[in-house]
UniProtKB/TrEMBL annotation:
Cross-referenced PROSITE patterns: NA_SOLUT_SYMP_3
Family: Belongs to the sodium:solute symporter (SSF) (TC 2.A.21) family.
Cellular component per GO, a single term: plasma membrane
Membrane topology, from the record: Multi-pass membrane protein
Record field: transmembrane: 6-26, 47-71, 83-103, 124-150, 156-175, 187-204, 238-257, 278-303, 339-362, 383-405, 411-434, 446-465, 477-497, 528-546
Name assigned to this protein: Sodium:solute symporter
Alphabetized UniProt keyword annotations: Membrane, Transmembrane, Transmembrane helix
Matching Pfam families: SSF (PF00474)
Predominant localisation class: membrane
Gene Ontology molecular function: D-glucose:sodium symporter activity
Subcellular location: Membrane
Length: 547
């Protein structure tokens, strides 16, 4: 249980974020009333690269990451750090190949972009899938992780505590719009990173450094926990080739085609800010392996050497330590009072930033992609009102999903399992749409329909009949197989139903591989080409070290 000092810090932080969020959103909209809907949903397209990069990171990193990446570090070592470092490659793709079209087309949502490149049917389907995925992946799973933390630290009912935090988050998000989301996310990123550094240092110091940690792993015959690239047949189900084949399918959807993430880019001041923001986020994404995953591995070696008491966590069905609560256990056993309050604030930052970003994206898609279609004459005031209502409804649905999602042994694995079955058709139509002139509207629509249906069927078989052949395929490889199937479907239908470009769609695919690099760029280190190369180099060196 938290002491009064820690509880006070936590409460003051939550109230502070609420006040700042309301102030940022309301004051911004008062200054610029010319386009009320644009101000509310896209912050009037005034965002600069530091805010975009920090907001991208904050929307991505939630309490799920702090809790579940530490859990994965405890269970399997640095392996799941691949989801962090591989993100660098997809953020480069976003910066170089997707951003120019998103900015050039002036869209407010990614379903809107899909209509401009293909047709209305593709837009409708993506809007529905994006809203559903935002509710499940970005909100419900984040609530679950936050609930586990709050239950462990406060001893409160998980659902009651999560509802209170999410209502507070919903208030400033629904009232303040994207500007409130981005301002609060920037603050929350700093708080979250500070908290993560504190717990990482505490665990590292308690262990006595890198050497003692490796000695413990060596004595247990588990030095492979330091490896990011595992061999074929590894018990984790994630050998090196599944990472390189499967992750891009998940990553391109998540970073390049998911409204909740990309909305920060759509609010950019100009194309260069929109390009540099994701690259800045890519550099920040190097940190989670060391401040989110590594603490979990340190907790494992501390437990093995008798410096961390994990008996209170109990055992899972397989007789292993139930590691879901390892992060909160580290907080309470390794930190003094005062610092615990800061860590709780960091955990709540992750929950609040994830939920606020998802709610804002849901309200944007429902207003622009659904309501405005049937009410094209709708005023800005009506669009904003519908957006606020949809955000509230999404919150209720997310809360209802918590009992079902709590059945996953690992929250992080649960999220990626869901994404692996949602992402393939969306990744396919975006990639082929941007890189292939021949991708037709009819083929995109059929690929989204058939690919999504396949994903649901495979997911259901996997859960109902886990002993079948499908049940034994790792989710990363399943994503790759589904993606390849979708590519075959779209290419085949593109020849059956040849493309008929409009004047607008003919400007939304690359004519040559080098064309994306010819756009306007800042000079020096701020050049997006220079930064892309530097990010590739740094990530490559890290993979070589931890191969």
């Amino acid at each position: 249980m938290l002491k009064s000092l820690d509880l006070s810090i936590t409460i003051l932080y939550i109230l502070g974020i609420l006040v700042i969020g309301l102030w940022a959103g309301i004051s911004h909209r008062r200054k610029s009333k010319a386009n009320a809907a644009g101000e509310y949903f896209l912050a009037g397209k005034t965002l600069k690269w530091p805010a975009i990069g920090l907001a991208l990171f904050a929307t991505n990193i939630s309490t799920v990451h702090l809790v579940s990446l530490a859990q994965s570090g405890f269970d399997s070592g640095l392996l799941n750090g691949n989801f962090e470092w591989m993100a660098a490659f997809t953020l480069i793709l976003l910066s170089l190949f997707f951003v120019p079209f998103y900015i050039k087309s002036g869209v407010a949502t990614l379903p809107d972009f899909l209509e401009k490149r293909y047709d209305r049917s593709s837009r409708d389907w993506l809007a529905i899938i994006s809203v559903v995925s935002a509710i499940i992946i970005h909100i419900a799973f984040s609530m679950l992780a936050g609930g586990i933390v709050l239950k462990t630290l406060f001893g409160l009912n998980m659902y009651v505590s999560v509802i209170v935090i999410c209502i507070i988050t919903a208030i400033y998000t629904i009232i303040g719009g994207l500007k409130a989301v981005v301002v609060t996310e920037s603050i929350q990123t700093v708080v979250l990173l500070t908290g993560a550094f504190i717990i990482s240092y505490a665990a590292f110091h308690k262990m006595g450094g890198w050497g003692p940690m490796t000695e413990v792993l060596k004595s247990k015959g588990e030095l492979d926990k330091l490896s990011m690239m595992r061999p074929h047949g590894d018990s984790s189900g994630m050998p090196w080739y599944t990472v390189f084949l499967g992750y891009p399918i998940l990553g391109i959807w998540y970073w390049c085609a998911d409204q909740t993430i990309v909305q920060r880019v759509l609010g950019a001041k100009d194309e260069n800010h929109a390009r540099i923001g994701p690259l800045f986020c890519g550099f920040i994404k190097i940190l989670p392996v060391f401040i989110f995953v590594l603490p979990g591995l340190l907790a494992y070696t501390l437990a093995q050497s008798g410096h961390l008491d994990v008996s209170s966590l109990g055992l899972d069905d397989k007789g292993n330590v139930n590691s879901k609560g390892i992060y909160t256990l580290m907080i309470t056993q390794l930190l003094p009072s005062g610092l615990i309050g800061i860590l709780v604030a960091a955990l709540l930052s992750g929950l609040m930033s994830q939920v606020s970003g998802a709610l804002n994206s849901i309200s944007t898609m429902v207003s622009y992609d659904m309501y405005q279609r049937y009410r094209p004459e709708a005023s800005d005031k009506q669009l904003i009102r519908i957006g606020k209502i949809s955000a509230g409804v999404a919150m209720v649905f997310s809360l209802a999903l918590l009992p079902m999602l709590d059945k996953y042994e690992s929250i992080f694995s649960g999220i990626n399992d869901v994404i692996a079955h949602i992402a393939p058709p969306i990744t396919c139509v975006f990639l082929l749409g941007v890189f292939w002139k021949g991708a037709s509207a009819q083929s995109a629509k059929l690929t989204l329909w058939i690919g999504s249906a396949l994903g649901v069927v495979v997911f259901a078989i996997n859960k109902i009949f886990p002993e079948t052949l499908i049940g034994h395929i790792p989710f990363m490889m399943m994503a790759f197989y589904l993606f390849c199937t979708c590519v075959i479907i779209q290419i085949s239908f593109s020849y059956i139903y040849p493309v008929q470009h409009t004047e607008e769609s003919s400007q939304l695919y690359w004519k040559s591989p080098l064309e994306p690099l010819r756009g306007p760029a800042w000079k020096g280190l701020g050049n997006y080409k220079v930064l892309s190369g530097l990010l590739l180099l740094v990530t490559g060196v890290l993979y070589y070290i931890f191969r």
